[in-house]
Every structure is written in structure tokens, then in C-alpha cells.
């Protein structure tokens, strides 16, 4: 029996490319392609759910996560997106892989093989087991998508001097300005390169690339090349770890 599969994607060229690639796998049956949150919610409410979903994350009318907030599914999800900042949230769902565009045939084949390895003979889905295994394979962020009014901007992780929280919002700092993000600092700790970024206190995560000066008396205070108008102090319980981190 073929594996029922659907695509959720709002870019027609991306849909055509993925349909062509999936056609190389004879055991997959592509049921439909959906191009918005609204259309996908409606389809899930009226149709038998597939076993496998290929889904972009940023759609024209929202994030594809919104779909699964409104409908419950046991389908496995392989996310296909140009942005890697949603990795952590993706793996809170039944996501088994996360492919960055443009998708290569070899990467797609590996993702499909991983999907098949999760298929038990009786057809049930152990979501918790999926999450535990996939999280071990998580990659670090290389860029972040931020919103400026009605526009989107991609910020390279190499441009960021620090992340900081203010009024329950987490911002990132670059040479040009600060930008709000959709992360919490706890989430960022899990997806940032720990050799480059360090959480010095409850409010700040800093990048080693932008450290300008470190004062050691009376407290450990860090000056960055670019930082908000706020002093950055290493909390007492983090000083030893901070020194170890600096030493590499």
C-alpha cells in the first residue's frame, strides 16, 4: 500500500519542484497540495489524514504551526523552508526532519528513509519517541527571520552581538539596530552555537565575536561593540562558566 502524502506550500515553483522530486519515490502517493493555513485547516477537517506531510513554515496567511493548533493529526511532518529559526518549535510537533530550501534530492531521500524508520508495523505513532530522537540531531541557527512592519528581513547569526529580553520580548542586536524576535532566551540557548554564544545572566546572551572589553572589578561586566543602552553584567553563579567559555 502506498504512503498517502500531502504538500503544504504557497510558492508554486517550490510545489512543482517538490512534486517532481516526490515522483521519484514509487511508494509515495501524493494526495494533494495545499497553499495556505485556511485551506489546509479546511482540508484536514474534511478528509482522511495522510501518513506524511511536507510543509513549508511561512505561508501567506500565517505559519503552518497555526494549522496544527487548530487540527490534531498523527501524520509525520517534514518541514521544508528557507528559514532555520523555527527548528525548536517544529520538533515540538511530530516533525522528523527539517529541510532547508532549495531542497536537494539526496537530502530528501534521507528524510524519507528516516520517516520510514519510524513506521511501526501496527501503524501507530509514538510522538514522544520521535521528539527525543530528533532533538539529538538538532542543528544550530545560522540566520533569523525578523519582522519590520509589513516586511521580513533575514539576519545572519554572525551579525548579532547579543540577544536580550525587555518587557517579555526578546530582541537581537546588530550594528544597525535592534529587532524583536519570536524566541525566548531559554529557546535560544538550545539552538545557538554554544561555542559562540553564552548566557551571562537572565536577561542577556552575548556573542564572543563582539566582546570589546571585560571588567572584572567589582563585578564581571562586559562591553560589546554593539549593545543596547544597558549594562551587561555576568551573574555571580555564571562567572566560572563564563571564564571557561572564554578559554574555549
Automatic annotation (TrEMBL):
The keyword Phosphoprotein applies. InterPro entries: CheY-like_superfamily, LytR-like, LytTR_DNA-bd_dom, Sig_transdc_resp-reg_receiver. Keywords: Phosphoprotein. The keyword Nucleus does not apply. Pfam families: LytTR, Response_reg. Residues 4-116 form the Response regulatory domain. The lineage of its organism: Bacteria, Pseudomonadati, Bacteroidota, Flavobacteriia, Flavobacteriales. The modification 4-aspartylphosphate is found at residue 56. PROSITE patterns: HTH_LYTTR, RESPONSE_REGULATORY. This is Two component transcriptional regulator, LytTR family. Residues 144-248 form the HTH LytTR-type domain. It comes from the Bacteria. It comes from Epilithonimonas pallida.
